[in-house]
Amino acid sequence: MRTVLIAALGLTCAMPALAVDAPSKPVRLGLCAACHGETGMAQIPGAPNLAGQRLDYLRKALRDYRDGSRDVPLMRAAIGPLSDADLDQLARWYSAQSLSPQALTQP
């Protein structure tokens, strides 16, 4: 019983620390969510799932779209006016989302 209480106390103390690491929902999420979904699960055919992608990959991809290194006019128009801080917040949000089990089975 003592071991169970100690384990429960440890988990209770660790929970706030885990919550602090979770990114807050980006203010600029709306436009991205229209195609990629709020939780990173694509809402339209052809849009990739962003949930669980590597943070460094998403950061670079977003900057490349904005700066024109990746020539996708829709993406450039969508994120063109966003600052590095906005892009970082979006990358953090999507990289922290979990990929749904159904996405793993879809082609």
Question: Assembly type of the shown chains?
Answer: single chain
Distance between the termini: 48 Å
Number of domains: 1
Q: Mind telling me the CATH class?
A: Mainly Alpha
Helix content bin: 55-70%
The averaged pLDDT comes out at 83
Sheet with most strands = none
Protein name: C-type cytochrome
InterPro entries: Cyt_c-like_dom, Cyt_c-like_dom_sf, Cytochrome_c_Oxidase_Subunit
Keywords: Electron transport, Heme, Iron, Metal-binding, Signal, Transport
Signal peptide: 1-19
Give the SSE layout:
Elements: H1 2-21, H2 29-36, H3 55-67, H4 73-79, H5 84-96, H6 101-105
Key descriptive features of the protein:
mainly alpha; Cyt_c-like_dom_sf; Cytochrome_c_Oxidase_Subunit; Cytochrome Bc1 Complex, Chain D, domain 2; 107 residues; iron
Description:
- This protein has six helices and no strands.
- It has 107 residues and is an all-alpha fold.
- The chain has one domain (24-105): Cytochrome c-like domain (Cytochrome Bc1 Complex, Chain D, domain 2, Orthogonal Bundle).
- α3 (55-67) crosses α4 and α3 (55-67) runs antiparallel to α5.
- Keywords: Electron transport, Heme, Iron, Metal-binding, Signal, Transport.
- Residues 19-98 form the Cytochrome c domain.
- Pfam families: Cytochrome_CBB3 (PF13442).
